[in-house]
Each structure stands twice: as C-alpha cells, then as structure tokens.
Design a protein that fits this description.
Two copies of one chain form a homodimer. The first copy, chain A, has 391 residues and is an alpha/beta fold. Chain A has 14 helices and nine strands. Chain A has a six-stranded parallel sheet, with helices on both faces. In chain A, strands 7-8 form a two-stranded antiparallel ribbon. Chain A starts with a strand and ends with a helix. The relative contact order of chain A is 0.11. Strand 2 of chain A pairs antiparallel with strand 1 of chain B.
C-alpha cells in the first residue's frame, strides 16, 4: 500500500426530511449570506427549493439564487455565479441538486475567492481555497457530495475537465433518499452506472496487496447489484434508494481508493463523448467501460477474474482465468443493459467519423501530452481502437 | 435504514515514516502547547517518542509529557493529566500509543476544559467540548484513532465504562503500520480480535434493509481473515499490517454502522472481565463473542447464517439455516484460536464463583437498570447463562 493522506471532513445528514435542517447546518458552518445554486425547474416544482429557503429563513440566513445548472455543467454559468457572489458578498455556496449542480457550485465557490480565471483549477491547479460549500443532494450518482472533485465543460471548444482540491470537500451534505424517488428511471440508471464506474476505476490498480480496499470496493459493487434492480423495478423503494445513496457517497469519497493507483480511463473517454454529444455521463460510461476493460484485460487477467468471481459470482476457471475475466465484463454489460443503459456508440448519438477527433482530444486536449490511463498507459492509437469497440 | 448524522473530520496520515510529520499536523490544527501522553516504556525504547518530539521541535511547538497509561486505562492518571494540562496551559493533547493511551488522552482532553468531574462523561454525558486531540497509533485494534469513543476504568470500584461525543474525534491520526511490527504476537492477535468484534457488534442489528453497510462490514471482516494469519505468521509483513490498520480504523469510525441498530453486548460483558481481572480486552472478547452469539442465535438465525455464508464461506443449509449459523460461530472461534486467542474463562484468569458479581455489575452497575443489549434484550439471568457458556 502506498502512503496517503485521507481527510474527508464533510458532515452527512442522512434520511427523511433532513433538508429541513439545511439552515441549521449552514449556521453551524458559519454561513450568513448564501448563494443557492440549483438546476432546472424540478427542485422548484417539487417544492424542495421552498423547503430549503424556509429552513434558511428560520435561522435568519439571507440568500441569493442562481438556477440554470445543466447536466455537463457549463463555464458560462460559473462566471455568472462568481460575479453574483462577489457583488452580493456571499460567504457560503449551497448546491441544491445533483452532481452537475454541485460541481458548478464548487467552481463558483473557488472562483469567487480567486483573482485569476477559475478555469486555471480545471487545468491542474489545486483548489486550496474556496467559499464553504454545502449540498442538498437529489440524485445518487456523481459522489460530488463527499468528494474533493468537480467537472466542468468549457463552452469555448466544449472541453470537459476536472478540478480537485481539499477546499472542494463540502462542509455538509444533506442526503435524503426520498428526494431521489421522483427521478426518471433513465436518470436513476445513469446514477447507478456512474457509482459503479467510480468503483471500477479504483479497482483497476497496479498496486499490490490492497486487500482491504479491494474488499470494500467489491462490497459497494455487490450492494449496487442488489439494490439497482430493486429501485428500477420500484422507484418508490426508499430502502433501496437509501442503500444506493450511502454507497454512492462512499464510492467516491476515496475511503476505498486510498493508497493505491487508480484508473480514470473510462471517465476520460466518456468525458469526450458527453462534451461533444451532450449525452448523459452515466449512459456514456455504460458504453465506454466494457470496451476499455476488454481492451485492457490482458494487462492483469487475474484482477479482472477476481472481480468477476467475487462481485459477479462467476465460477473461477482455473485452467483459463481469462474466460472468467471476460465473463465478468459481459456480466457487467448485461447488468447495465438490464437497468436500461445503452451499449453502443449509436445510442449515444455518437458518430464513427468523430473517433479520430475524440481520441485526439482525449490524448492531447487541454495540456495532455499523448497518453492517458493509470492502469494501462494508452496512446491515441489505443484510444481509437477502444472507441471502435463501442461501434 | 434509520436517519443518521455522520461526521468524521479526522485527518489520517497513513504510511511509512509519517510520525515525522506529527509537528506539521499539530501546527495545522493550531496546537502550540502540547501534552504528549504515552504508555509504558516501549515508545521510549523504540525511539518513537524521540522522533515525535523532534518533529514538534522542528515546528517550534513546546510540550510537556505524561507517561504511564496502562491497558485498561485508569481514572487516576486521567486526573493527573487534567491537572497537568491546566497548570501548563496545554492547548493540544497528543496520544502516542495504542487504544488505551488514546482513550486516556481523550478523557484528559475532555476533563481539562470541564468544571465538574470528568467521570460525568463516562456516566452518559455527551462530550461536546475537549482540547483538540491528535494520535500517533502503535497498534491496530481499538479504532479510537478515528472514533468518538473512549473507555476508562474507574479505580474506585473498578468500573469500566465508555464515553462518547463529537469532541472525542481526533483532529488527526498518524497511522504508520511499521510501528506495529514490533508488537508481541499476542497483542497483535488481541488487536485483530477487537477489530472483528467492532464489526460483529455492528452486524448484529434489528434494522432491516441495510445491505450497503452489511456488505461493508463483511468486506472488512474478509480482509481481517485474509491478513490476520499472514501477520501472525510473519510479524514483519508490512502490507498485511497496513491492510489491518486501515480496516481497524474503518471498523470503528462508524461509516459501516450508520443508520442501523447495533449490539454492544460482547463489549459490555468483556468490560466486566477486564475490569475485574485486568485481562487483555481482545482476549476477553475472544472468549465472550462465541458465547454471546450462541446464546442470541435463535433471535435471528438468518442473520447469523448470512455472515457464516458470506464471511466464513460456509455452505448455506437451506433445509436447516441454523446449522449454517452455528458453523459460522464455530469458524469464528476456530479462527480466533488459530491466531492464539483463548477460548474459556480459565485462560482469562476468570473465576466461576464471580459470575453472579459480573452479571450483576453488567446489568446494574453504574446506572444501568437491569437489561443490556441492542440486538437481544438480556437480563441478569441471561447474562449469567452466557458467562456460564464460557466455562
């Protein structure tokens, strides 16, 4: 195991009606003038925004609002939010929504206290300072409610890039599983896929002897496999929603990814797809993951056989572990299809003739120097071949 | 799943040589005058204390020292530490040692800023305020490095009781697995047993539909079963030590125990044994656990069968799940014996004729009103019967 520092000081208030405590937690973390950032109209229509505002009112906390955060959140709204924070002397940023809204709020919180262009953070500068952030989560997916990460799409060129740093860990996150019960089935399935991708990308490591974190990742995947179909079958299943929501946070707060190399190839390849075609991130991952894993299989057959056996219950083929490994990838893809996810390029709206552009951008875009991948180092030719597997 | 709040804002610096960063972290958390609290001479003899002091010196942080913390730490030393903190205007308490030293340091940290008797906290008062605490851990066992808990033995009557509260979460904990390589085999095995007990006590729940935390508990137990024998066979196995150390923290920081009822019967019954006979806590748990589980088996046969199947690899007997459940308890006991733990009253130095006293104290001691147990409610007669199973 490699040396590491793990510091995840986010308070999680979990369960029914917890959004009514938002004001209490903003106060606990010394917020007095809040920017409430949210997405489309659903948090308005559902009455959630009103409940959050009422709880701020109860604590005598003033606020301004900025709606309009979109899936694959854009830089334009971030600039708008930064300006609003400065003008209104905001001292706390509260995201009410899913991962996209939270990521947008994080970018605003960093930009508001930074002299330069906030995009610097998305080109690799560590986020050491930001306004304090709180979240009221409405979908189990991105894990941004407990992570130090944010992903934004730059509209000038449609680049999608991530930023990271300790100041991006929310002070508090409110996780009420009931709020996710009204999600469309497709979005729920996209969230499940994203959570599973966060686990797979940590599982694919070159670090030896990491049994504790291996087992934790397997545990969270097993929980997703148990709960995913239940919530697709019955969207009102609060208990299944609750298990998914707690798993989703832990899949990405890095408690199960510490001290080991990780692989973010699937995310990197997906980000090019959702940046260009504006497809849902989870749907993109469902198409990308089996292709990446199939391409990388021979790098460490036993690792793929291990996850196939332990997580997917495949019988270990001791004479040909590769068979087990391949079966595990097939089982993953079958599972994702069973919850309604796509499995090929076409269903994402992606085009064969863009593959060269996608691969070029993945390997050379935004300061990259030709290779990606923490598990297997992949060059542009590799990436082209992986995209072709998705056709 | 029940509603819960989870807030575990401890920074973990994990890996080789991390004790040399102690001063840096004390400074990060605003300590300027430190009480270094430690146990017996081993941290002195090994040179660890000198390395910690050198790192404080490097940051210009002054300190006073208090050694002498013992296994089953005593109230007498706590009073001494409190007085020292007040006299020397200490603003940070640093524990260098195992769970006993850390628990003692926590009691000192709470008492130093409290007007009344620190024992009030061990009679149920929540610890809301304490001097900030840091730890340099030397044994993977109690999980106190990441927990809000502390257990102290009151010398006046030899009561062993726990206290809890947010202020007991350390600001930082330094986890260098190499520091545990010099532990005697027996102590290492006691630590493994304690970690497994923290997992079992959370697993035994009456809350339905907690698959995510069930799976996490199982994962950490599986990791212990994998790594425990390796470290007993080769005490210098750094990687096995590292996996155990990270599992040990997570077994007790409650990330896998949230939103579910828990059972602390085994700990309660063990505390009476170690209070009276001063046996090692882990050794006591090894004797207590199989007895408690056997006695409680019929309360929820399927839960015991589930852990037997998933953790111990027992074949599920679908015609008689009780057989599987019993086999799981036997497998646990066999495992504990295999790493050198005792299995009966006598080997703890415990006496049959004390059973009535032990049961009386467990059920009525220190403010209790006749029953204990979060899984099965047990009265004195039950507890007598359980102790008898250990003969």
């Amino acid at each position: 195991m490699e040396n590491f520092v793990f510091y995840a000081p986010t308070l999680f208030a979990f369960g029914k009606d917890t959004e009514n405590d938002t004001g209490k937690y903003v106060k606990q973390f010394a917020g007095s003038k809040v920017l409430i950032h949210y997405g489309s109209g659903s948090v308005v229509r559902s009455g959630l925004l009103d409940r959050v505002k009422a709880s701020l009112d109860n604590e005598g906390i003033s606020y301004v609002e900025l709606g309009g955060a979109m899936p694959n959140p854009r830089s334009g709204l971030v600039y708008e939010g930064i300006e609003l924070c400065r003008k209104e002397k905001v001292d706390f940023v509260l995201a009410v929504g899913g991962g996209s809204t939270i990521d947008s709020a994080k970018a605003i919180a960093a930009g508001a206290v930074y002299d330069g262009d906030f995009w610097d953070f998305y080109e690799g500068k560590c986020v050491e300072k930001a306004l304090p952030i709180g979240t009221v989560l409405t979908i189990a997916a991105a894990g941004s409610e407990g992570s130090p990460d944010s992903v934004i799409t730059k509209e000038d060129g449609m680049f999608k890039r991530g930023a990271s740093g300790p100041a991006f860990r929310p002070r508090f996150s409110i996780l009420n599983p009931a709020l996710t019960q009204t999600l469309p089935e497709y979005q729920t399935a996209c969230g499940i896929t994203d959570i599973m991708a966060h686990l797979y990308e940590r599982y694919l490591t070159n670090t030896q002897e990491v049994e504790t974190t291996d087992r934790m990742i397997e545990a969270l995947l097993l929980a997703m496999i148990h709960e995913g179909p239940r919530v697709i079958e019955n969207p009102d299943n609060y208990e299944a929603r609750a298990n998914i929501m707690w798993a989703g946070m832990q899949a990405h707060n890095n408690s199960c990814g510490v001290g080991r190399s990780q692989d973010w190839t699937s995310h990197d390849l997906e980000h090019e797809l959702s940046a260009l075609y504006d497809c849902a991130h989870g749907a993109g991952l469902a198409v990308v993951m089996p292709a990446v894993f199939t391409y990388n299989l021979k790098h460490d057959v036993n690792r793929f056989a291990k996850i196939a056996h332990r997580v997917w219950g495949c019988q270990m083929d001791f004479e040909c572990p590769e068979r087990t490994a391949i079966e595990g990838i097939e089982r993953l893809q079958d599972f994702l299809i069973s919850i309604g996810m796509p499995y090929d390029f076409e269903s994402l709206g992606a085009k064969k003739e863009d593959i060269d552009t996608l691969a070029q951008q993945a390997c050379y875009g935004n300061g990259r120097t030709g290779t990606i991948g923490g598990f297997v180092s992949l060059n542009k030719e590799d990436v082209v071949n992986i995209y072709k597997l998705m056709l």
